[in-house]
Amino acid sequence: MSLNLTQIAVTPKAGRPLFAPLTLVISPGQVATVMGPSGIGKSTLLDAIGGHLAQGFSVSGQAVLNGQDLLTLPAEARRVGVLFQDALLFPHLSVGDNLAFGLAQSVTGRARKEAVDQALEQAGLAGFAARDPATLSGGQRARAALMRALLAKPLALLLDEPFSRLDADLRAEIRRFVFDHVRAQNIPALMVTHDASDADAAGGPVVTL
Amino acid sequence: MKPQGRALRAAVLILLMGGFVLPILAGFGQTAGAAFGYLPVLGADSLSLEPWRALFALPGMATSLRLTLVTGIGSTLLALVLAAGFCAFAHGRMTASGMARLLTPFLAAPHAALAIGLAFLLAPSGWIARLVSPWATGWDRPPDLATVNDQWGMALILGLLIKEVPFLLLVMGSALGQLPLRQHLAAGRALGYARGVTWVKVILPQVYPLIRLPIFVTLAFALSVVDMAIILGPSNPPTLSVATTRWFSAPDIALILPASAAALLQIGLVLGAVGLWICAERILRRVGLWWLRRGGRGHPTEPGLWLASTATATLMAMGLAALCALLLWSFAWRWSYPDALPQSWSTKFWLSPGKGWGEALKTTLLLGLASTALSLTLAIAWLEGEDQAGTPRAGWATALIYLPLLTPQLGFLYGLNVVFLQIGISGGMGAVIWAQMLFVFPYVMIALSDPWRALDPRQIRAAASLGASPARRLFAVKLPMLLRPLLTAAAIGFAVSVAQYLPTLFMGAGRIATLTTEAVTLSSGSDRRITGTYATLQAALPFLAYGVAFLIPAILYRNRRGLLGTPT
Amino acid sequence: MRPLVIAALSLGLASPALADWQATLDAARGQTVYWNAWGGDARTNAFIEWVGEQTEARYGVKVEQVKLTDTADAVTRVIAEKAAGQTSGGSVDMIWINGPNFRSMKEQGLLHGPFATDLPNAKYLDLSPGSSASVDFTTPVEGYESAWRLARFVFTYDSARTPEPPLTMAAFVDWAAANPGRLTHPAVSNFMGSTFLKQALIELTPDPSVLQGPATDENFDAATAPVWAWYDALRPNLWRQGETFPENQSVQQQMLNDGEVDFGVSFDPASAAGAIAEGLLPETARVFVPEGGSIGNISFVAIPFNAANREGAEVVANFLLEPATQAHQQNIEVLGSFSVLDPAKLNAEEAAIFAALPSSPALPALEDLGPTLLEPDASWMTRLTEAWAERYTK
Questions:
Q1: Is the ipTM of this complex over 0.95?
Q2: Does domain C154-296+371-392 have CATH number 3.10.20.30?
Q3: Closest Cβ opposite residue B481 in set A90, A101, A154
Q4: How far is C157 from chain B (nearest CA, A)?
Q5: Chain C contact present for B105, CB below 8 A
Q6: Do chains C and A touch by CB distance (3+ pairs < 8 Å)?
Q7: Judged by CB atoms within 8 Å, which residues 414-433 of B form the interface with C?
Q8: A131 located within any domain
Q9: Is the pLDDT of residue C5 over 80?
Q10: pLDDT at C1
Q11: What would the pLDDT profile of B112-151 be if each residue is shown by its tens digit?
Q12: Fold held by C2-150+297-363
């Protein structure tokens, strides 16, 4: 199912909308890109869709996913995964527990462990389940973060400059890894970036705010 | 904005209003009534200024006032200067965790224990005199020198400094953590300003606003301290707070009226001193700006920093020696002048817990654990409420947290006791836990707020996007990640609880004997060995709490490098 | 006529009460008595604990000592309870009390009673009018408090350091001039400090009999003039030039032990012997009393009007008057404070317990203590301390 954004605008309390209302349809397996100068509100747009908008901002318009307007739901009920420029693995949990954090509670016992092990293997991290996330390399962390997001079975994915902290070689590799998974899962993804090469690689529609 | 956040915040607010603000106001009201002649039980039922007239007619009143102001403002000012100097000196020479370890014993040791030890250290027949007599001084008998309980309150100022300088160093340390310190220092020095001058001109003006409230707390505390002033201060006349405590408990019960007036005066004194301080801030700001704009690169300030650091180090050494003296005394049998160490030893006092300290230790632990656990729960509820509502803290909320710390305890405790009696809970553990929480909660809240806010909000968003409900975000993500600051806040709360003297005494109706109430009572007796046992235990408990707060995360998270940073 | 009325009254009160004693014992069983007592003396605390063990075993009454820094704390608490309208179930069951605190509570109606004359063991006391157990600082006891221990004002000193202590209060002036900075007394706001002044007052005042009546504007100046002359001469040579004073006698005893001063004061003739046994004074510590005797009084226990465990408190007060208890208390190894009982009222068996008590070189015999001087009327103490504060507190 696709993610339909209609006339989305974010307005600070006592102020003008940050950008012109945005309308965009992202099909399953497609990665759409939002670009624009710093401070225009690209990340705020993702916050609005993900349900993480800070106090003092209001959002108007509609973001329909799976027949429901996301904007009326609390963040945890939207089933929208987020990847940030830092992997943000929980430092108190092992790599395996981080991945398991997003698994539905209905997955229990052996199935849980198997799901995590399988995801780790896909990320080239087989045998890393017990590791401290702080001991992972940047690329390993980025892959683990994606697997954590995907194990929660999201219906859409938001990418908040997820590759900007990675050096050039790694960047292309991780980008490919993420986009391949988005396609394999067949879910819509919305990416915010500064880097035109990211947009090129994504291959989806590009919007400039 | 979000209903669940609002409900949580409303619940916390109602609890705080009903449990903290109202009792303080009610207690204050009772005291104020008595200060203006309204205390029906004594047959005083018409408003008048007579208690005030009586108060100012009491002998030594003027000296008491002067003494209070000199020791209160003087110690705070000195503590600030020394702490700032030491901070500038130690920065870059000492790691943040090293600093925290250095400060812990001083933060943990209760005022009363430190004062008891210090009194022995400084007395003409005290440890320092014993170490150098008679071979160096020729004193075969202790000299008649006013080294403690002196008329000028010097010993009291010294005692206050030993507690206040580490406290200010701690708050400065955490304030500095919020600034891009290294860059600013580099920028200042690149512009030709010496290290010390850069500190004064660039860093301190940024740090000061962040530590202003703790400074006011220090000031209010120094102006109204009772236990330390009894032990180290002069007695004829004593500081206003000690005099007030004495009048409250004088045989002539009519003195309760002027005592209440004195309690109000105490509040006025704190307000006046804070006002004076704010005026001085304004003036200093102008003078400082003028001085800054002149652009002088200044003289090398290293000697000044050395002096401040040496003074601070000496204070700390004296504090440690005072605590060691307590420990030595608790194992002594006879230890008379001028022997540097006890002549005979005994473990009698340690081996008979049934005769006193066992019970007091149990009560202290129970009170400390209960008031800390409740305060911590309340603080978490408050902070989580802020998170869920998504609003920053309002100024009045901060004022609310600081209210009990800025109000002299004497100003409302007597009245509060009357209120507690009216609702029938005075003299029980519940009343004492409640009264202690008035002081434990603010410290827990202050200790926890910064680390809580420093948590990366994106981490919480990541958890939400993985489908975690607010409760799961709190219990599975925030609290485990904040384990170290949570335990540190708990240790601070526990230390505050252990050190409470007046609230325990007043609300416990004297029936609840803790290590602190017993140690202060015994310090007016003749047996330093028993006092030493109690005071050692009193100092050891908070220290243990800090140790546990340090060890638990270190063990639990030994494989979690991301959480083993510098202690907060 | 009047003694007859008093006798009739006391009889009328006593007999039904004695008959009720069994009822009191029954009601007391299971109670815990919160005894508010100054807690600065470890031996007293240990004695109180022993009392609790005994009464629990015998009468099922537990004793919990509430250790006070100052007796007035307990008085304040009772006032606060009255202020809050708490007329029963109060937190203070029994107070170690005497002098101004007693007078203050009695006048304010804060005491339960009369009960003391009704205690079975009151028969061992000399309660004749004017006796030391029936008058507390010239305030008539009238059954509102029960005697407990005898107090006599004494000086303690180290005989090795001060072989010849002064023999009168007046002689302290010359002694201090020869030994500046070696003499002090507890702060006058403290009970022992004011006793030091009262001891001088009795010795120096032109007509000591005036002191048994109330102090007035007319008689006060004349009676106290010699005291101020004496004190003005003494003060410059006191420890710290008389500008500050130890908080109480325990602190002063510690100073004596440390060698900071050469004299301690105490209301307990056995204090030196006790302190030696506890390791708190050197073996050579002794006590002495000025020629002509010293002030003596009795420590009492009283029960507040709203005490929650009144019957238990009465049982404890009665137990304190048992000859065996008083002998235990007089034992130098226990507390060493002299019995309040009238020796004439003891039978041979009871008297023998006292005769068998151990002695110590630091323990004076009763005859070494000279005559007991009666406490001046409480108004003298109040005025004396006020006048002292006005003169010497700057």
A1: no
A2: no
A3: A90
A4: 15
A5: no
A6: no
A7: 414, 417-419, 421-422, 424, 426-427
A8: no
A9: no
A10: 33
A11: 899 999 999 999 999 999 999 888 888 888 988 888 888 8
A12: D-Maltodextrin-Binding Protein; domain 2 (3.40.190)
Is residue B40 included in any domain, yes or no? no
Q: How distant is the Cα of C14 from the closest Cα of chain B, in angstroms? A: 31
Structural domains of chain A, count: 1
Which residue type occupies A10? V
Host domain of residue B77: 3-19+61-237+299-563
Distance CA C123, CA C14 (A): 11
In a mutagenesis test of the C interface, which of B122, B244, B253 is the best target, namely the one with the most C β-carbons within 10 Å?
B253
| Residue (of B552, B562, B457, B441) closest to B494 by Cα position | B441
Domain that residue A191 falls in = 3-93+156-208
CATH number of the domain residue B213 falls in: 1.10.3720.10
Q: Out of C83, C258, C275, name the one closest to residue B41 (CB).
A: C83
- Output A139 or C6, whichever has higher pLDDT: A139
Asked if B525 and C49 come within 8 Å (Cβ–Cβ), the reply is: no
Q: Tell me the pLDDT tens digit for each residue of C239-271.
A: 999 988 888 888 899 999 999 999 999 988 888
How many CB atoms within 10 Å of residue A18?
18
Distance from CA of B508 to the nearest CA of C (A): 10
Mark yes or no for CB contact B125/C81 under 8 Å: no
Asked if the Cβ–Cβ distance from C73 to B524 is below 8 Å, we say no
The answer to the question of residue A135 being in a domain is no
